[in-house]
Amino acid sequence: MFAVEQELAQLEEELSSQYGLARLKPMLALAWHLRQRDPARACTLSLDAAPLLALLPEAERRLEQARCQLIDGEAAWLDGQLDAARALADAAWEEFHRQDDSIGSADARWLRAWIEVDRGNAAASDAELAGAAHDVWRAGDRLRADVIDAAAALFAVFRNLHSANERWGKRFDPAEKGLHPAAAGWINDYLGTAAFQASDFGRAIGLLMNTFEAALATGQVRRAINVATNIGNAFTSLNAHHAALEWMQRGLDLARPTGWPMSIGLALMQTAETLRQLGQREAALELLHEALATLAPMSGSRAYAIALEYEGDLALDGGDYPAALASFARLEARGEALRQADFQSGARRGQAHALSHMNRPHDALDKAAAALALAREHGDSYNQIAALKVLAEIHARHSLPGPAPLDAPSPALHYLRQAMAVAATIDGYTVPGDLYDAVAREYASVGDYPQAYDIALRAGAARDKTHSQEATNRAVAMQVQYQTERAKTEGEHHRQLAAAEAKRAEVLQQTSATLEHLSAIGQEITTHLDAAAVFRALDRHVHGLLDATHFSIFLIDADGSSLSCAFGVEAGKALPATRYSLTDEHANSARCVRERCEILLDLNAGDDMPNLIPGTLPTLSLLFAPLLIGERVLGVMTVQSLQANAYRERERLIFRTLCAYGAIALDNAGAYLQVAATLKALSATQAQLLEKNLELEQAYKALEEVSLTDQLTGLRNRRFFLQHVDADVVMSLRGYDDPLRNGAVERENAPGKDLVFFMVDLDHFKEVNDLHGHAAGDAVLVQMQERLREVFRESDYLIRWGGEEFLVLARATHRDDAKVVAERIRQAVANRDFVLPDGTAVRKTCSIGFACFPFVPEEPRLLSWSEVVELADQGLYLVKRSGRNAWAGIYSTPEARHEGVFSRLIHHLEQALTDGEARLVTNVDEVQVAAGAKPRRLVLATDKVTPR
Fold it and tell me: Left if phi > 0, otherwise alpha if psi is -120 to 50, otherwise beta: which for 95?
C-alpha cells in the first residue's frame, strides 16, 4: 500500500537494469508508490506500461490496467477533479470485484472513501472504509487492515470522542514491534487526534509529529500536509503561536508546489486562524479568502466547514455581524451534512452572537437554545458551558422573559449558575475567570454584593490558576519542541554518519576501480613509440575520464627557454599553435614548469581572465600538471572545464596518473626518435635489414592477433583462452588454504576471487542455416556476440568455442551472482528478435550451463579448470535434455568432497531426465547421495524447467 524511500530506490535500480517485459513489474510498482510523491511521473509510467500490458494474458492484463486506473484516479482526486476520480475508482473496483481481487478492491474503496470525504459525504466515506476493511481482513493484509481501521477510528473521533475510544481504544498498540511505518503513522494519527479532542495537547503534538514523519517517509504527502496544520493547531491551543506558525508554514510549503486545492486550502485557512488569534486580522482575512476560493470546488468537505467557522469568528472579531451570520448559517448546513456535532453546535452559537448584536434577541435566543440542546444530547460538557454563556450574554444585553422555572434572581444569572454547575462535573476543569466575572456582575446587578464580592475573589484565584496553567502549557510546548528538535538533530546526525560511511565505502571502491582502470590505460599509453599516437591516446582517455572542454600538452623546446603547444583540442577543435617563454609571469603553463608542481584554478563566471589564450573559451576550472621524468621536466599537461569546481581530489588523482604515464611514453618516444636518427647514419644495407626485421615483427604480430580472434564475430577464440586461463586460475586460488594440508577451503573468508565458466549454446541453430542459409546463420552469431557483450564486462573473456557455442569466463564474480548473470543471458537472447540480412526477424533462445571455480567435490584435490569447464558443459547438457531456454549451474558445498559424489549426482540426474522425471530440476535442489557411511551434499542450482 505504501513504500519507504529505500524501496523506491531499489525499484528505480531494477527498472534501469531490465529490458522488455521484465520492466513491467518494477514500472507498475514504481508508478503506484509515486502516486503522491510525483503524480505526473506516476501517470507517465502507467501510460508507458500500456504496450507491455498488451503482452500479458487477458485476466492479468485487466487487473494491472485497473491498478493503473487507480493511479490516474488518485491524481485526479488530488487535483480536485472528484467526479473524474470517482469514475476511475469505480471502474477499477468493478474489475477487481469481478476477478475477486480483495486487495485491489480495498485499494479502490480506500480512494473512494477519500473522494467522499472531500465531497462531505461522511456516511458514504464510512461505508467505503467498512467495505475496505472487510476486503483486507479477508485477504489477510495486516498493513492495509491497520491503516484502514486507524482511518475509520480517526473519523469516529470527530463525531464522538467517547464512543470512538470505546470502539477503537483497544484495537491498536503503537509500540508493537515490526509495525510498518505507514501503519504506525496512521495509528499515531488516531491517538494524537483523540488526545487533541480531549485537550491533551502536549501528548497530541508528540503523536502527530510521529505521524508527520511517517507520512513523508511513506509518500503520503497529502496526509503530511494535513498533519502539519493539526500540529500547528495544537501549538496554538498551548498559546505557543510562533511554533504554531512554523508548522503552518511547513504545511503550506509542502502544499503549494503540489497545486492540490484541498491541501493548499487547508494550509491557508489554518494559518489564517493562527494569525487571527495573534490579532493580525487583515493578514488572516486575506489568507482565509484565498482558502475559501481554493476550496470552493470541495465545498462539502470538512476543511471547507472549518474555513467557514474561521470566517465567522473573524467577522465577529471585526464587528461585521451580517457576514458572521451568513458564515455560521452555511457552517450549520455543512455540519448537518457531515453529521459532526462540533460544527453544528459552533454554528448555532456563532449565529446567536451575530443575531444578538444585530438586535434580533428572540432569534438569537432560539439559536443558543438549539446549541445547548445539541450539546446536552451528545453529553458535551464544554459545548454546554459555551452555549449557557451565550444565553446569559443574550439576556444581559436584551430584556427578555426568563426561562421557567427561573431559579435565580435574573435570567442571565440563571444560565451562568447552570454553567457553573456543569463545570463542577468536569474532572480537573478550571473555571475561567471571565465566567466568574460574569456571575459576579450579575449578582451585583441584582444587589447581592456579598455574593458578588465572594465570586470576584474566586475569579481572581481562577485567573491565577489559569495563568499558571497557561505557563504550564507554554512549558509543555517548549518541551515538546525541544524533544522534537533533539530527536531530529540526533536522527540527522545518524543519517549523516551513515551517509558519510556509505560515501567513504563508495569512494574507496571507486578509487580501487579507477586505479585498476588507470593501470590498464598506462600499459596502453606506454606501448606507443610515436609522440602523435601518445597524444591521441591521452586525449581519448582524458575525455573519457574527466570533464575536459580544453586539453593541451606543452613541451619544452630544444633551446630549453620556451614552451610550445605540441597538442591542443578545445570543444572538439584543434587549438592554434602557441608558444610561451618559461619566464612568462602570466602563463600558468610556464609557472607550472618553473615550480614543478600541480596548479589548480577555480574561477567564477565573470571573473577577469588575463591569461586566456586568444580564441579560446572562458573555462572556470583549470588544472595544470608537469610532465616529470625523475628530476627532468618534459613539459606540461592542462585540462580545463566550463563547469565550476570540476576537479576535486579524485579527478586530480586521475589527471596526475595520466601525466605520469604520458611523461614516460613521450620520453620513450623521444628516445626512439634518437635511435631512429642513429639508424639513419648506418649503412643503407643495415637500415634496410632493420626495416625488414620491423616489418616481419609487425607481420608476425598481425598474424598472432588473427590467430587469437574469431574472424566472424570478432570474439577471442579457443587458442586465446588457453593462453590466458592459467593466469586467472592462479589469481583465483591466491590466498586459499591448501585442501591437502588442512582439508578445507573456506570460501567466504578467503581473499581469492571466483571464476565462473558459462557455456552458452543457441537452441535449434541448425534451423536458421537450413531455412535461411549460412549468411543468415552468420548474422545471428554476430548479433549473439553483441548480446553477450551487453551482459558481461570488458574484463571478462568472451570466447567463440565453436559453431553456435560460446564460452564465457566471468572473472572476479561471486558464485552467488552467477544465477543472476545466467538469467540475464537467457533474457538477452529470448526477449528480442534476431534480424536476418533480408530483414526477416526470427526469435531464438539459448541454453546455458555454468560452473564455479574453485570446485571441491571430491577428496583429495581441487578440480582443474578444464574439469570445471566440463561441469559447465554437463549443466548445458542437462538444460538441453530438459527443454532448453533455461540455465543450470553446478557448484559444490564444503561438505561435498567425498570420492565419487559428483559422478553419482550427474548419473542420478541424467537417469531422472531419461525417465522423464524433469521435475527434479527445480529452482534450487539439494540432492543427497550416499557415499560410504556418511552422506555428502552437492547443490545444483537451475532455472525452473517445464517437464516435456
Answer: alpha
Give the position of cell 534450487: 924
What are the cell numbers at 85? 476520480
Dihedral sign, CA of 565, 570, 572, 575?
Answer: negative
Residues 799-842: tens digit of each pLDDT:
999 889 999 999 877 777 889 999 999 999 999 999 999 999 99
Point out which residues pair with 554 in neighbouring strands: 565, 636
Chain segment 201-216, per-residue pLDDT in tens: 888 998 999 999 999 9
Confidence of residue 473 (pLDDT cuts 50, 70, 90): low
pLDDT of residue 935: 32
Helix (H, G, I), strand (E, B) or coil at 60: helix
pLDDT above 80 for 892: no
pLDDT at position 183: 94
Under DSSP, the state recorded for 622 is E
Q: CA geometry: angle at 38 spanning 35 and 39, to 5°? A: 50
Q: Cis before residue 860, ω within 30 degrees of 0?
A: yes
- Residue range 764-785: average pLDDT? 93
CB atoms under 10 Å from CB of 742, counted, come to 9
Instruction: Tell whether the model's pLDDT for residue 87 goes beyond 90.
Output: yes
Phi/psi region, residue 766 (left: phi>0; alpha: psi -120 to 50; beta: rest), is alpha
Q: How far apart are CA 903 and CA 177, in angstroms?
A: 50
Q: In DSSP terms, which residues pair with 639 in a beta bridge?
A: 551, 623
Is residue 408 within 8 Å of 414, Cβ to Cβ? yes
What is the chain's length? 948
Count CB-CB contacts under 10 A for residue 726.
10
Nearest Cα neighbor of 747 from 820, 854, 860, 821 is 854
Instruction: Tell me the pLDDT tens digit for each residue of 398-456.
Output: 988 888 888 888 888 888 888 888 888 877 667 777 788 888 888 888 888 888 788 88
Residue bearing cell 507520512: 215
Decide if 400 contacts 362 (C-beta within 8 A).
yes
How far is residue 830's CA from residue 903's CA, in Å, rounded to a whole number? 32
Whether 387 contacts 345, CB under 8 Å: yes
Please give the sequence-ordered ranges of beta strands (E in DSSP) within 642-754, or none if there are none: 716-717
CA-closest candidate to residue 620, choices 634, 635, 630, 608: 608
Instruction: Please report the pLDDT score of residue 816 as a whole number.
Output: 79
State CA 429 to chain mean position distance.
48
Phi-psi region of 713 (alpha: psi -120 to 50; beta: other; left: phi over 0): alpha
CA 601/CA 619 separation, integer angstroms:
10
Q: Contact at 8 Å (CB) between 892 and 853?
A: no
**Alpha-carbon span 946 to 279, nearest angstrom:** 76
Question: Which run of H or of E encompasses 495?
Answer: helix 449-526
What angle do helix axes 341-357 and 321-338 make, rounded to 10 degrees? Answer: 160
**pTM, 2 dp:** 0.49
- The pLDDT score that the predictor gives to residue 90 is 96
Cα separation, 654 vs 645, whole angstroms: 16
d(CA 564, CA 573): 18
Among 75-84, 706-715, 747-756, the range of highest mean pLDDT: 75-84
Dihedral of CA 321/326/327/331: which sign? Answer: positive
Cell numbers placing 23: 520492466
Q: Please say if the pLDDT value at position 894 is more than 50.
A: no
CA distance 591 to 588: 5
